Amino acid sequence: MHYIGSKEKLIPFLKKEIRSSCGDLEGKTFFDLFAGTGTVSRSFCNEGLHVSANDIEYYSYIINHAYLKTDSLIDYQQQLESLNALKEEAGLIHEYYALGGGEERNYFSNENAKKIDIIRKTIELWYQNKIINKERYYLLLATLIESVTYISNTASIYSAFLKTLKKTAQLPLELKALHVNSSRVKHNIYNKDANSLIKDISGDILYLDPPYNLRQYGANYHILNTIAHYKPFKPKGKTGLRDYYSSPYSRKKDAYKSLKNLLKSAKFSHIFLSYSSDGIIDNEEIKKVMLKLGEYHQVSQEHKKFNCKNSKTKNNKVVEYLHILHKNTF
Ligand SMILES: C[S@@+](CC[C@H](N)C(=O)[O-])C[C@H]1O[C@@H](n2cnc3c(N)ncnc32)[C@H](O)[C@@H]1O
N or C: which end of the chain has fewer CB within 10 A? Predict the structure, then answer.
């Protein structure tokens, strides 16, 4: 999934730095407090760590739940085939987000919108009628959410749709099985505000990857939450926004204070914070706060900036800092 701030390409760098700071990782706890797509959490599952993943957005919770809590040996191909074979039926995605719905939004072809509707309704029915359990429910929802991102008529985020259907948006929606985590350790998933949750948790390694710019995830991925919740509401304006959570980390006046409070409250021995040179909070400010809390150093790596797929931006490189803090006392 093409996601703002995804660390997928930085995983080898993160692993190297985390291993060299913490030594043997086997049996340690790893908390990914702003997990997003869960790509970092997943990659650390295979190191024998007890992983916990949290994100305030519901679509992210579903994705993380599916990847980290499903037994990799399960075979759900038959269920996917049944869902893929369903006959299109209009519902709220068609009504709100396809031209045929009459609200002039072109996020999906009419056929795909109706397909999303019938699949989403069937998953709910299976769950309500106890044909599937909670784990399978999240797995099927996550599969639907990921598949939808491939046929959306957008430049990868949902803050706008394209005027005419692009090639990939004309392809029929098809659910494909997720490659879930193969670790046998039990992992924990949360759907909470990081600054509240931090008061109730403790452990060895805390990985922080908060938003670093003004883009609110709830606004940019609102349709994924609509598919996840699937409850009627009144979509707003041209883009059909739903009410969304506004993160303090994406507000200039609140980002620094939120991060400072979070770091102070954290009861973890090793804290790793990913932050971009392009971010709202200045590198020196982060350094100053961390130096007061324990032993501190930073490393960095050049990284390709997130751009919408049709962006013409040329300056694509940013420096991705990894701030490393070993906290002495909590
Ligand atoms: C930079 S992204 C994380 C990307 C992730 N590491 C990945 O590789 O996919 C930041 C994430 O923080 C989440 N977020 C924003 N504010 C939050 C808050 N107050 N508490 C918890 N999560 C929050 C967003 O929903 C978003 O998924």
Answer: C
